[in-house]
């Protein structure tokens, strides 16, 4: 499959200047010892992050070198081709900028439904592709081994291996932001489900009106802000504002927040009952609420369980680069002779 020319040349900020997502090192910056490395990509609906990872990855050491952020080059049904073209272009740029570094493999994560075993992006509603052969296309373009995976699944794998869930076997990782996505690990292994496991944001939960609704329509940060405005409250910038209003005695804000907690607790309790989940890692913007989220959520989960063990709720440790680090972990495993 041929790869067309990439669309955007670089990420731009104020004044049109190209900018990295973090402090860039390497070419023209601090020197690094030569040695094997992996190049990791985390493709999102708006932008894509890329960075080099040298040496081993652990809880104490997971630095990403020359971390950059670039617009995701979308082109409808051809977005698979344009994304791969941009990845190939950036990979060549990194190889030139870090000529002293041997890049042993490339890791790529994307959203949507993903067939990791066959390297296929099955479907992405936001990015437009369907059944696109990412691994085949990128391996041919780069001449390097390519490890391919789902963005949130790889973030969950990273939290499990070197982050907040190290040493645990039965884990649910929830990323709660504009929507809700998850990764499920049972008996120390991530559940793939043919690419469909972890879509907890679309699991049905009891709705405040007595019916059913998908979890992210009640429990996501985006839903909290939207539902408050729709319930007669003033427009707010986000869930943080709703929480502040609830703390100040706004009854509508308190009800919207409680509805979100109840919906999240229901889904977590279901996982505990069915899968034996012992640790729940909460990431994304809503996790920044801290005790205002964790304490009522733990209490509500407790009320929904009977003889089951109560899960421990912990904050994600790896932050917004968890998907990128997970991509690097999978690429490093592949370079060492593991599976794709």
From TrEMBL:
According to the UniProt entry, which residue ranges have a biased composition of type Low complexity? 8-32
User: Which residue ranges are recorded for the region named Disordered?
Assistant: 1-32
Q: What family does the entry list?
A: Belongs to the ROK (NagC/XylR) family.
One Pfam assignment: ROK
Q: Which InterPro entries match?
A: ATPase_NBD (IPR043129), ROK (IPR000600)
Residue ranges annotated as coiled coil are: none
What's the protein name? ROK family protein
Highest rank taxon of the organism: Bacteria
The cross-references to SUPFAM superfamilies, in alphabetical order and at most eight, read: Actin-like ATPase domain
Q: Read off the Gene3D superfamilies from this record.
A: 3.30.420.40
User: Which PANTHER family does the UniProt entry name for this protein?
Assistant: BIFUNCTIONAL UDP-N-ACETYLGLUCOSAMINE 2-EPIMERASE_N-ACETYLMANNOSAMINE KINASE (PTHR18964:SF149), ROK (REPRESSOR, ORF, KINASE) FAMILY (PTHR18964)
């Amino acid at each position: 499959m041929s790869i067309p020319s990439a669309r955007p040349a670089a990420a731009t900020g104020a004044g049109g200047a190209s900018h990295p997502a973090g402090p860039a090192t390497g070419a023209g910056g601090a020197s690094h010892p030569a040695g094997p490395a992996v190049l990791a990509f985390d493709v999102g609906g708006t932008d894509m992050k890329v960075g080099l990872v040298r040496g081993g990855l652990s809880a104490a050491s997971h630095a990403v070198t020359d971390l950059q952020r670039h617009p995701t080059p979308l082109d409808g049904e051809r977005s698979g081709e344009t994304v791969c073209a941009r990845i190939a272009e950036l990979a060549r740029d990194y190889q030139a900028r870090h000529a002293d570094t041997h890049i042993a493999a490339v890791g790529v994560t994307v959203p949507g439904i993903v067939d990791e075993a066959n390297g296929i992006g099955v479907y992405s509603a936001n990015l437009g592709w369907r059944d696109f052969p990412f691994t085949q296309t990128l391996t041919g373009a780069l001449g390097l081994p390519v490890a391919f995976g789902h963005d949130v699944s790889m973030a969950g794998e990273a939290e499990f291996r070197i982050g907040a869930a190290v040493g645990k076997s039965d884990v649910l990782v929830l990323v709660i932001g504009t929507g809700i996505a998850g990764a499920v690990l049972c008996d120390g292994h991530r559940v793939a489900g043919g690419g469909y496991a972890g879509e907890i944001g679309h699991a049905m939960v009891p709705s405040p009106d007595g019916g059913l609704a998908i979890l992210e329509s009640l429990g996501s940060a985006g839903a909290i802000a939207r539902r408050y405005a729709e319930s007669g409250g003033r427009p707010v910038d986000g869930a943080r504002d709703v929480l502040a209003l609830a703390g100040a005695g706004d009854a509508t804000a308190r009800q919207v927040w409680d509805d979100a907690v109840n919906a999240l607790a229901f889904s977590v309790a279901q996982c505990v009952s069915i899968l034996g989940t012992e640790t729940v890692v909460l990431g994304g913007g809503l996790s920044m609420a801290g005790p205002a989220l964790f304490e009522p959520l733990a209490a509500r989960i407790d009320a929904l369980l009977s003889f089951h063990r109560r899960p421990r709720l912990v904050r994600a440790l790896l932050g917004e680069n968890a998907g990128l680090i997970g991509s690097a972990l999978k690429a490093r495993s592949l370079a060492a002779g593991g599976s794709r």
